[in-house]
Amino acid sequence: MDTLAPDAPQMKPWIAAMHAYVPGKARIDGRPVVARLASNENPFGPSPQAIAAMQAALADGHRYPDPASTGLREALAALHGLDPARIVAGTGSDELIHLAASAFAGPGDEVIHVRHGFAVYELAARRVGADVVVAPDRDYVADVDALLALVTPRTRVVYLANPNNPTGTIIPASEVRRLHAALPGHVLFVLDCAYAEFAEGDYEDGLALADRYPNVFAIRTFSKIYGLAAQRIGWGYAAAPVIAALHRVRAPFNVPTTGQAAAVAAVADQLYIERVRAHTLQWRRWLQDEIETLNRRHNAGIRVLPPAANFLLLECAETGPFTAAALNEGLLAAGIITRYLAVQAMPRCLRISIGTEAETRAAASALADILAAG
Length: 374
Prior knowledge:
Elements: H1 13-16, E1 35-36, H2 48-57, H3 70-80, E2 87-90, H4 92-104, E3 110-114, H5 119-127, E4 131-135, H6 144-149, E5 155-161, H7 173-182, E6 188-192, H8 207-212, E7 216-221, E8 234-237, H9 240-249, H10 257-268, H11 270-298, E9 303-304, E10 311-315, H12 324-333, E11 336-337, E12 339-340, E13 349-353, H13 357-373
Parallel strand pairs: 1-11, 3-4, 3-5, 5-6, 6-7
Antiparallel strand pairs: 2-8, 7-8, 9-10, 10-13, 12-13
Helix pairs in contact: 2-10, 3-10, 4-5, 4-9, 11-13
C-alpha cells in the first residue's frame, strides 16, 4: 500500500482496511479472445429495442438525466405490479448495495453476509466504518441458522444474494422467508436477486416480502439478463421510509439518460428476455453435463455445483494436474476467459459464464483438450 507523509491527508482506518474490487478479465495479453466468460454477461447484448432507444436518447446528451428515473420506475411497477413510489434506481445494483450500508450502518454497527458472497457487500460495509461479520456457509450454500446465530443488537444490515454470486447456489423460498421472519425489525434485510430471472422452481425474489414488510430491500439489475451492463442500471423495492433514506444518500443524477431509455425499452421487450433465459438454461444444462462427463472420463476431481444463475461454479482438485489454477491457465491459452476465484479466497474454484452456443462449445472443447493432455 502506498504510504502518505504524516502531514498529508490520511484516509480513515476502515478505508485503509479495504481492498479494491477486482473485476473479471476482459482481454488476454498476446492472444485473441475466443470467449469472454468471466463476468456473467448476456452474450447477445441488449434487446434491439433497447439499442434503438439508446441511439434516440443520444440527442439529449447535453441535458441532465431525469433524477427520479420516473419512466423506468413506472415501467417496472407495471411489469411487476408494484408501487412506483417505492422503487429506487441506482448505478447498477452495486450502488444500491452501497446505499443500504450508507443509510443504515456506520461505525460500531455490524453488517452480516455469507462467506463466498458477493464481494461488494464487504466493501459497502467497510466504506461506512461498520464491522463486517461473515457467516459460514454449508458447502457453498447460505446457511440460515448460521446467519441468524450471528445477529446481535449491533446488527444493522444483512445481505443475502439468492441465487448467490460467485457460487451460483440458491436456497428455497421457505428458507429466505424463515431468515427474514427471525430477523429483528431494526435489521435491514437486503435480498440481492441480480440473477432472479435464471432461477427455477421454488424461488423467492423478495418483491412480495418488500411489499409487505418494512425492513426488506429487494434489489435487481439490468446488467445480467437484460444485457445492459455498460449502462449501469439497478433497481430496488422497499417500504417508503427505506426508500426515503436511500434517496438522501444516492447521487442526484445517478442513472444516465441512455440507460433509462434502454431499460424502459428492455422492460417492454419481454419476448427477448424469455429467449435469452431459455438459451441460458439450455446451455447451462448442456455445459454441466459435458463437464461432468469429462470429469468421469479423466477422473479429474472436478465438481460442478448445482447451478441457479447464468454460470457454473467448478470446484477443482486441490493438487495434481487439474487444479483451478492449471485449468485457468489452459483455458486462457485457448483464448477462453473464465473467472479464477483465488482473489475471493476460493483458490479451488473456476466460474464459467454461459455464452453463445459457439462460446459455450468452445469452452467445453478447450476443457476436453486440457484434460486429455493432462
